[in-house]
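Our preliminary data section would be incomplete without showing what the modeling component actually yields. Below, a chain of 232 amino acids is followed by its predicted structure, encoded as tokens that our downstream tools consume directly.
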Amino acid sequence: QTDSIISGLVGVAIDAMVTQEFSRHLDQLSARHCDEVRSMIEDLLKAENPELHLLNLEKQYFIDMVQAQRADSKGLLALLDDNVGMASEEANRNVTTIRNFLASNPSEIGNLVNEACDNATAFYDLTITNMQLPLAQRKAVTVADGNSLGSILFRLIAVDAKQIHAKYNRAQTQMRLIAVHALVHRYRWDHKVLPAALTDLHPPGLVKDAFNGIEITYKRDGESYTLDNTTP
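Predicted structure:
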């Protein structure tokens, strides 16, 4: 997950498949394996999120890609067509607006490119800064909805960071749930019964949803149990 957004999303998809398959075998964990799984996941949760690196790459990729067309309106329009494709009617109208603008003002292409790059820098820098905050303090970052042609050009080409966030957040949630499963199974090894509540487990920080601080839902039913949380 170090080369591009695409490679990152492929990595997340592979993580999800492995995590899902592993979760089917939790009952096979020994006490030692429970400790190893918990420790491994704690290390992964503390490590730098690969998304930070990928978003930095995406910012530079956008800037390099658009700057390369600053003297070539045909190239810039071809880039738009490639990225918009079968998009919404609004997106196609915006492409037509930019096309007409460049046809009437060919000398303004440099300013248009500069403004789009400024929008990209502001958006990605704000997104990256936000991601470096504790999970519970993060706020949703949206692409500026300005009506200038530069901001429109940026929105037409830029990757939707919200979808990337959702996939990485879901992967982190899955890992945290497996760590809690490992804690529950370790408790059962030690006490021969399931815990009455997640507050019986240590470390207690793992049993809270990192995005809202609310304790993960634990429902015990005899000798079985379920875990759930509200993170999308």
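The first helix runs from residue 5 to 23. Strands lie at 217-221, 224-228. Preliminary results of this kind motivate Aim 1 of the renewal.
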